[in-house]
TrEMBL record:
It comes from Deferribacter desulfuricans (strain DSM 14783 / JCM 11476 / NBRC 101012 / SSM1). GO terms for cellular component: plasma membrane. Keywords: ATP-binding, Nucleotide-binding, Transport. This is Branched-chain amino acid ABC transporter, ATP-binding protein. CDD domains: ABC_Mj1267_LivG_branched. SUPFAM superfamilies: P-loop containing nucleoside triphosphate hydrolases.
Length: 253
């Protein structure tokens, strides 16, 4: 299997707290990988270190054979990372379709905002509808994000990252805050994006959906990797069970 991202011995500290400890794992091309673990396990920190938002103490991130560890967030995006945040961050003064058009037209001008007024941008507006259809929100293309419910904003956040045509999509809790029925629809959308050929690292708490859609899981506890494998095998692992429910509650078979 071809590796698209290799994380090597990543260490992140916040003062005295070691949030990520010697973390190494791979994402294979075309794979949907779930990065899971209990609260405070270091999932978001690991994702932020991969995307360059947080500077690790040590370790490397190799994207498609290139060491991007010293690159800025913007450079990593240009190299092929698409980043979707847990807290949605659309441009609130722009229409939904304009939010996508900016991402689609990123190579046309140096400034993302200026690119909106670029003469040839009508092409991107049209294309933005195709992208909105991928996450089933084309009906709100002409709305402002502030008028939309969270479920739509979560989809917009994902498709904004997808519009950058990334080699790898990093998704931080795209199901958080959604009802189970909305979460399930969102999980189906993520699976469909992956089936279209996009490699994905998914940080998510909703275990039933993660187990349903992911090809493989990497489990963190207290910053360190404690399991890596197929979802059903990983969820039977004693270390994983104990990380989620505590040692005292694990009953020996
Ligand atoms: N900016 C920060 N400053 C100090 N400590 C932080 C910071 N961000 C995270 N931490 C600490 O690092 C550890 C890992 O946090 P992180 O948010 O990465 O975990 P997580 O697995 O994503 O948790 P959750 O599932 O609750 O979002 C925690 O102990 C957290 O308190």
């Amino acid at each position: 299997m071809n590796t698209i991202i290799r994380v090597e011995k990543l260490n992140v500290k916040f003062g005295g707290v070691q949030a990520v400890k010697d973390l190494s794992f791979e994402l294979y091309k075309g794979e949907l990988l779930g990065l899971i673990g209990p609260n405070g396990a270091g999932k978001t920190t690991a994702l932020k270190a991969i995307s360059g938002i947080i500077k690790p103490v040590s370790g490397s991130v190799i994207l498609d054979g290139k060491n991007i560890s010293r690159f800025s967030v913007n450079r990593r995006i240009r190299e092929g990372l698409g980043i979707s945040h847990q807290i949605v961050k659309p441009f609130r003064s722009l229409l939904v379709k304009e939010n996508i058009a900016i991402a689609l037209g990123k190579d046309k001008t140096k400034s993302a905002i200026k690119s909106l007024f670029y003469k040839r941008f009508s092409e991107e507006y049209e294309k933005s509808l195709d992208y909105l259809k991928k996450v089933n929100i084309e009906q709100v293309a002409d709305n402002f994000p502030s008028n939309l419910p969270l479920g739509f904003l979560k989809r917009l956040e994902v498709v904004r990252a997808l519009a950058l045509n990334p080699k790898v999509l990093l998704l931080d809790e795209p199901l958080a805050g959604l009802s189970q029925s909305e979460a399930s629809k969102m999980a189906n959308i993520i699976k469909r994006i992956n089936n279209d050929g996009v490699s994905i690292i998914l940080v998510e708490h909703n275990l039933s959906e993660v187990i349903r859609i992911c090809d493989r899981l990497v489990v963190l506890d207290a910053g360190a990797k404690i399991a890596d494998g197929k979802p059903m095998d990983v969820m039977k692992d004693k270390k994983v069970i104990s990380a989620y429910i505590g040692d005292d509650d694990v009953i020996e078979a």
